[in-house]
Specification:
The chain has 163 residues and is of the alpha+beta class. The protein contains 3 helices and 5 strands. The chain has a single domain, classed as HIT family, subunit A (2-Layer Sandwich), CATH 3.30.428. The longest helix has 21 residues. The protein starts with 33 loop residues before the first helix and ends with a helix.
Length: 163
């Protein structure tokens, strides 16, 4: 089998770089992807992102979804939004670690199934259903006990500066 040749480099001189130039897009054109709507519960809005909690009690699991339309990659955001997203990831991570002590935080932006940019923040324990592997597909989603999801959301609303 012959090795593949070098990956061609695309000339970028004429390509606009939205992270470096351009303006922020209005959040009024934004909507949450239907799969995220189905799989999560809303916590509230940070300055840039909608904060969600996954409806899977196997893991304390937050998602941040920047309220910008037609964005699938972090690099699609303007620089100011990229910085804001990373600040919000740090805030959400600290809050989750404080209310759900864990051995490791997993932070990921994959988008292979849901193309809308979203960042997972997952509190992992060495004895959880997937440890040490990724959580996706490791165990069927586990429903929260009555009122448990509501308590988690209420706690997140108390500790985070949500709109």
């Amino acid at each position: 089998m012959q090795a593949a040749g070098p990956v061609p480099v695309v000339a970028m001189a004429a390509m606009p770089l939205p992270g470096l130039h351009g303006s922020m897009t209005s959040a009024s054109d934004w909507s949450l992807h239907p799969q995220l709507q189905e799989d999560t519960a809303a916590v509230g809005d940070l300055p840039l992102s909608r904060l969600l909690v996954a409806r899977d009690a196997n893991y304390p699991w937050l998602l941040l979804v920047p309220r910008r339309p037609a964005v699938s990659e972090i690099i699609d955001l303007v620089d100011a939004d990229q910085a804001q997203l990373f600040a919000e990831i740090a805030q959400a991570s600290r809050a989750l670690k404080a209310i759900a002590p864990c051995d490791k935080l997993n932070v990921a932006a994959l988008g292979n199934v849901v193309p809308q940019l979203h960042v997972h923040v997952i509190a992992r324990r060495t004895g959880d259903a997937a440890w040490p592997k990724p959580v996706w597909g490791a165990a069927p989603p586990k429903a929260y006990a009555p009122d448990e999801l509501g308590r988690l959301i209420a706690t997140l609303r108390r500790v985070l500066p949500l709109a």
